[in-house]
Write a structure and sequence with these properties.
five-stranded antiparallel beta sheet; 156 residues; four-stranded antiparallel beta sheet; 9 strands
């Protein structure tokens, strides 16, 4: 029982840190086979970039992006009815709803290559701008410089 008393406060602390993150600063964490990269915009839009080490039935690693919007609603790049696009350096990067097919894999890898250098980017959900992010070059380099778990597409 004493163990549970230690776990609950740790979990609440993790939630509190995530819920009140400093705007425009990437952070990262790992748990249960998933690496997360999280950034919050000044408009209180939270982007959660999930890179999994847990393959699906076809041995594909289904990485994805989840958004939490200021009103508490969310969007997930794995939802085929939701189009999430990241725009940086005047170039759009539409996120695929699944991986394991050539165009989806290429789109994902292009997105990862762009986001790990981006010091300014916008997020669109179904063609509506929902947030603008501007992390510093130092923060981007420190947190996103090496993301091998996000560029590995099959378990092996």
């Amino acid at each position: 029982m004493q163990f549970m008393h230690a776990i609950l406060p740790a979990g609440l602390l993790t939630f509190a840190i995530t819920a009140h993150a400093v705007p425009n600063m990437w952070s990262s964490g790992f748990g249960m086979g998933v690496t997360e990269y999280i950034i919050t915009s000044p408009e209180n839009v939270m982007l959660n970039l999930n890179c999994t080490g847990n393959p699906d039935d076809q041995n594909i690693l289904q990485h994805h992006v989840m958004l939490t919007l200021p009103d508490g609603s969310g969007a997930d790049s794995q939802d085929e009815k939701t189009a999430i696009t990241v725009v940086t350096d005047d170039q759009p990067f539409p996120l695929p709803s699944s991986l394991g097919w050539r165009n989806g894999d290429n789109a994902w890898l292009s997105f990862i290559d762009a986001i790990r250098k981006a010091t300014s980017f916008e997020i669109y959900v179904n063609d509506k701008k929902v947030g603008h992010f501007s992390p510093s070059a130092g923060n981007v380099h420190k947190v996103l410089a090496d993301m091998p778990e996000c560029t590995t597409l099959t378990a092996g």
